[in-house]
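Throughout our pipeline, every protein is held as a single compact record rather than as scattered files. The record that follows is passed on verbatim for readers who wish to inspect the format:
___
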Amino acid sequence: MASGDLTLSILGLLGEGPMHGYELKSRILELSGHLRAVSDGALYPAISRLEKAGLVERHEEEGAGAARRQVLTLTAKGRRELLRRLAEPADLDISDQTRFFGLLTFLSQLPDRAAQAGVLRRRLDFLETPAGFFYQDGRPLRAEEVSDPFRQGMLLVARATGTAEKQWLRQTIKSLD
């Protein structure tokens, strides 16, 4: 999981409520599945960086057994950073589908419906810009123009996915306006 993805996941999940590190790791796994698992070697240093930046704080609570546990909480500064990242996502967070889905996971925490719609409009604008995987003479090829069945499959799946996503984006933007 890329550093930016992990930071947004930590801030977004803690924006939903305090939790201990193991629970946070489990929730990230639930969101990203086995394909983008996060290791302790990535998670705990990321938490420490966020803590040093004043975005996250840690305190002890009684555990279920005799052991006390460290609970992580989003600070007011952390909440502002989360909302900033949601309202003003980087271009890569808009153009990369996996990162965009990570952003969508927490977009409901952005209280301003117009700001939510603005993020969705940026994604829709990106998707409506002509592009493709394969080019010939400077123009993107359509699936029908590609003879390789695997490349053709990529184009067909991308077209269907893009069509469905654009339809969802238009409907959701309309409902937010």
Remarks:
- The chain has a mean pLDDT of 89.
- The first strand starts at residue 19 and ends at 20.
